[in-house]
Amino acid sequence: MGKSHPSLQGISCESCGAVHVSPAWACSACGSDRFEEPISLSGKASIVSHTVVRRPSPGFPDAPYMIVVAKLVEGPELLGWLQNFEIASTTIGDQIRFDHFDHRGIPQFCRA
Questions:
Q1: Mode of pairing for the β-strands spanning 9-12 and 19-21
Q2: Residue 1 reports pLDDT greater than 60
Q3: Taking 70 as the threshold, does the pLDDT of residue 23 lie above it?
Q4: Which domains does the chain have, with CATH numbers?
Q5: Per the UniProt record, which residue ranges are transmembrane (predicted)?
Q6: ∠ CA 71-69-13, rounded to 5°
Q7: Is the peptide bond before 64 cis (omega within 30 degrees of 0)?
Q8: Tell me, what DSSP letter sits at residue 54?
Q9: What are the Cα distances from residue 9, in Å, to 16, 25, 57, 105?
């Protein structure tokens, strides 16, 4: 994992067992507001969507960067950035893993 950043945590719904990335206030599967204690997530994921941001914007000067929607093996989807990407060879379904949260709290992924 990345430099002493927190691991990826989740919570599961007491009613239906759906897993969510913390924090969650209501289960997106059944609507319950009752959750189990936090659990550690594996961080293993696949890309379900991605886009490349090519123009720098305030607070995000490091363009280009790739934003991905990562589907974790435990179920939930998480928006984050893919590090060290190659535009031409990055496709839907590629296997990635959570690496760390950056200084802004944005999840950073790398190739599995």
A1: antiparallel
A2: no
A3: yes
A4: 9-111 (2.40.50.840)
A5: none
A6: 45
A7: yes
A8: -
A9: 18, 15, 29, 13
